[in-house]
Every structure is written in structure tokens, then in C-alpha cells.
Amino acid sequence: MLASIIAGAVEGLGKTIFSGLDSLITSDDEEQKNSIEKLKLELAPALAQCQINLQEATHKNIFVSGWRPSIGWCCSMGLAYDFVVRPIANGFGFHFVEIDSQALYPLIIALLGLGGLRTYEKKQRITK
Length: 128
Fold this sequence. Notes:
It is a single chain. The protein folds into 2 domains: 1-60; 66-128, no CATH class. 77% of the residues lie in helices and 0% in strands. It has helices spanning 2-22, 28-57, 62-65, 67-91, 105-123. The longest helix is centred in the N-terminal third of the chain and has 30 residues, at 28-57.
């Protein structure tokens, strides 16, 4: 939470500073340097979040490091219920409540993307 507050403050400060500098800069070299600094400031919050994620993932406490797998399991259970359990139960005359599985799809896609990146890292031997 503190990192997001700091990142927001840095981003706001950077936008304020560079919006004033844009009107003063005239040469192409200065504009390129300015655009590089803008990119650094825009990427600072993402870098801070990556560092926080790394610390959380290596934490020994299951409640800190285990939240990502638990989200994956919740999504798996939700999809299994919606596509396997509920149709079978409805076929036997039971009426199970339909869940809003549309809310799960963005989360599942994000988790699959992270899983794909993790597989790539392992294949490239970037991480253990």
C-alpha cells in the first residue's frame, strides 16, 4: 500500500514537472532526453510493484505467499462447478444455482498469462 502511494506521488510529481518543461524545450536532443525521463517515471510504479511481488512470493508464511495459488484454486473450483457439477446435477433433476462465471474469466486469463511467463522463465533458466 505504501509503495502504491509513493508510486502515485512520484508519477504525479513527474507529470507536473515534465508538463512545464515541455513548453521550454526546443531541441530534438532535449526532447529525447525528456521522453526517456518520462518513461522512467511512468515505469517506476510497475517496478516497485514487481519488487513487492517478489518479496511476497518468497515469503515463508502461507498467507503471504499462498494467495496466488489460492486464487487459482478458487477459479478452478468455480469453473468446475459451473461446467461440470451444475450441469450433471441439473441433469438428475437437482437445480443448482448458476454462478456468474463471467467475473472469473479476466482473472483466469491473467493467471494463465503469469503461468506462461513462469514456464518461459524456467525454460530459459532465468529462475529456478
